[in-house]
Amino acid sequence: MKTASISEIGLVREVNQDATFLRHDEKAGVFLVADGMGGYFAGNEASQAVADALQEFWDQYSSFMVKPDFDVCVRVLENLLDVTGGEIHARTPARKICGTTVSLMWVSDDKYAILNVGDSRVYSVERRLFNVRRTQLTTDDVNPENGHLRYALGAEKGCPIQKRTGKVRASQIFVLCTDGVYKHIPDAIFRRALDELTKNGDWGRQTEAIKKEVLNYGAKDNFSLAVVGME
Q1: Could you give the CA distance from residue 231 to residue 228 in angstroms, rounded to a whole number?
Q2: What distances in angstroms separate CA 50 from CA 6, 31, 35, 36, 176, one per listed residue?
Q3: All structural domains of the chain
Q4: Distance between CA 228 and CA 230 in Å, rounded?
Q5: Residue 149 and residue 128: Cα distance in Å, rounded?
Q6: Does the N-terminal or the C-terminal CB of the chain have fewer CB atoms within 10 Å?
Q7: Could you list the pLDDT tens digit for every one of the 231 residues in the chain?
Q8: How far, CA to CA in Å, does 70 sit from each of 106, 169, 183?
């Protein structure tokens, strides 16, 4: 596998409330972007709690000589999010709200699973013969009338978690990002940046180019992005 990532405070916020987590070996990997709720209580702690839980998951997974299969790992990750959300909610002071978006992807056995809460996104990007196919694999958990989040992990008990699974194709590139990326640069520029990932194998350079574009457009929010592909 091959990865690249950025996580930036932006030009307006005083604290980076995003978290990223990328771990993989030759056959499996777990990847996260999470956006702690800005304007509420300890959003950075909520997003980091998910990353910390994934570190524990990866440490245990890596310790097994015989690895658990894909479906077992997905069930464990679903439970991990449910438990972590409950822990965030339980330690939040009364009359406060604390939560985070989650875009989490697990890859193993030539399959992927995406677990999603909130409005962070996962895209599939794939070069075809004559064009680039870009597909948003997640659905934004937002109120269509005002754009506000409907769900965030930890903000309430029993938060619903979207799940999507599929087969991984050799040419497929996955892009996980918080709304600080896709809301703060024009769609045409973001689409072009995604397309460039299929042309240029230097993903570190490409993620830095996306960072520059977000900063050029004011970077009013924290922003994080992770790129994952098969080698």
Answers
A1: 10
A2: 17, 11, 10, 10, 15
A3: 2-229 (3.60.40.10)
A4: 7
A5: 34
A6: C
A7: 999 999 999 999 999 999 999 999 999 999 999 999 865 668 899 999 999 999 999 999 999 999 999 999 999 999 999 999 999 999 888 888 889 999 999 999 999 999 999 999 999 999 988 899 999 999 999 998 888 899 999 998 889 999 999 999 988 999 999 999 999 999 999 999 999 999 878 899 999 999 999 999 999 999 999 999 987
A8: 8, 16, 33
The answer to whether the CB of 48 falls within 8 A of the CB of 19 is yes
Integer CA distances (angstroms), 32 to 19, 78, 160, 196, 230, in order:
8, 13, 17, 22, 17
Nearest alpha carbon to residue 159 among 44, 24, 69, 46: 46
Say which amino acid occupies 104: L
| Orientation angle between helical segments 187-197 and 203-216, nearest 10 degrees | 170
E strands, the chain, are 2-8, 18-24, 28-35, 102-108, 111-117, 121-127, 132-136, 162-167, 173-177, 223-229
Classify residue 76 by its DSSP letter: H
What is the full DSSP assignment across 12-48? Answer: S-SS--EEEEEEE-SSEEEEEEEEB-TTSS-HHHHHH
**Residue in the structure block whose two tokens are 């990866």:** 58
Measured CA distances, 166 to 46, 68, 112, 169, 176 (Å)? 28, 18, 5, 9, 16
CA distance 154 to 99: 5
